[in-house]
Design goal:
Blueprint lengths: L1 H10 L7 H18 L10 H20 L5 H26 L2
Helix pairs in contact: 2-4, 3-4
Length: 99
């Protein structure tokens, strides 16, 4: 039973034998780095960088749902990117304009 599920995952159009698996998997590094930066002082946060992370996340999240086959790994990493970017931008804006 487990062998059949692993074989189905292995042979899936977005499985580990394709770039459609590995590109989003490595993209998780950007989201993880952004999460690590949550402890960074807000004066070290870049508006252009976080805006790019947020926009990339939003645009590619949408794209990952309209392509065939649906790539849930791509969708999830881009939702994470958008979320971390929005959080970082909100920290920066709060610090720069609410103080």
């Amino acid at each position: 039973m487990a062998t059949l599920k692993l074989q189905a995952l292995w042979n899936h159009p977005t499985g580990p034998k394709t770039i459609h698996f590995w590109a989003p998997t490595f993209k998780w590094g950007i989201s993880i780095a952004n999460i690590a930066d949550f402890a960074k002082p807000t004066d070290k946060i870049s508006y252009p960088q976080q805006l790019a992370v947020t926009c990339t996340g939003v645009i590619w999240s949408r794209y990952s749902m309209v392509i065939t086959p649906k790539n849930w790994n791509l969708f999830s990493v881009n939702v994470a990117m958008a979320g971390t970017g929005i959080y970082q931008l909100s920290r920066k804006i709060k610090n720069d304009f609410a103080s």
